[in-house]
Amino acid sequence: PAPPPAEEMGLEGAAPDVGDGAACASEFAGAASGGVTHEESFSLYESMGPSISEVVTQIKKRERSGFVSSGTACETIPADTTPTPLVSAASSAVCEAAEVESWESFKAEGTKRYVADDYEGAIEKYGAAIDAFEASVGSDPEDQEQRRALAILCTNRAAASLQIVRRSQELKRRALGEALPPELRRLCMRANIDASRGTDLDPSNAKAWLRKGQASLLMSAMQQRAKDAVRCFEVARSSGSLPASIKTEVDQWLRLARKMLDDQTDMPENCPQM
């Protein structure tokens, strides 16, 4: 099937904001490793104004130097001492905003490149968004909103990988299921892994099931691949989250998968032909 128009490319919308205020405590309180005191952190935060990036940059510079402004070494906290969290709600909010801005900006850049047909660039940026997100909340978050957001990032990267394979197929006039060169097969395998992770993180994500099925069919014409693809497309089709704009695309791929499965399935002996 021909690639869908830009508005139907399968890229998910903006993900919900996420952040980990507890994990940010050490960013602003930096005394655990020696470098900047709690008092200096608050003084710096209050004096620098609303610029998040400047605050974080200045604090990190002082942490790396290991000295306070007076030139004396910062006092380290003994290893057996649990530091008392002294970070205000405002400081935590600033840190959370910085984290959210990081992965969401990568995601936005990835979508921009995808729409411009720069699929390799999109893969890179979505990968950076996934790395930044996982650095903030981990690779297997418990919060359902965070799981949905990470599933979207994985599904978007899968979509970019599959677009490279599909465009190559069109240029080389390869039939669906025809053996792929190694570099394209690797892309299909990576897309399958990303999409599978998307379905694990958020089983209700119809687009993740669609991408998983497409990757299975594009990898080979083996019977098991076709069988897996049929199941994926059927799940996507029955999902309440499937956008109406790509329902036709799902139906087309489901018909292709069923045909490939039929072609690979031997008819039982003495079975009458229909």
Architecture overview:
- The chain has 274 residues and is mainly alpha-helical.
- The chain is 63% helix and 0% strand.
- It has ten helices and no strands.
- The protein has helices at residues 25-29, 38-48, 52-65, 89-115, 119-137, 144-172, 182-201, 206-219, 223-238, 247-264.
- The longest helix has 29 residues, at 144-172.
- The protein is globular and about 50 Å long.
Structural class: mainly alpha
Q: How many β strands by DSSP?
A: 0
Following the backbone from N to C, one meets helices and strands in this order, namely HHHHHHHHHH
Mean pLDDT, all residues: 73
Query: How large is the radius of gyration?
Result: 25 Å
Count of separate DSSP helical elements: 10
Shape: globular
Low-confidence parts, pLDDT < 50 over ≥5 residues? 1-9, 13-60, 62-88
Please indicate the percent range of residues in DSSP E strands (runs of 2 or more): under 5%
Characterize the largest beta sheet: strand count, sense, and whether it forms a barrel: none
**Fraction of residues in H or I helices:** 55-70%
**Ends distance:** 27 Å
Give a concise summary.
This protein is mostly helical.
Which features does this protein show?
mainly alpha; single chain; 274 residues; globular
What is the element layout, followed by pairings?
Layout: H1 25-29, H2 38-48, H3 52-65, H4 89-115, H5 119-137, H6 144-172, H7 182-201, H8 206-219, H9 223-238, H10 247-264
Helix pairs in contact: 2-3, 4-5, 5-6, 6-7, 6-8, 7-8, 8-9, 9-10
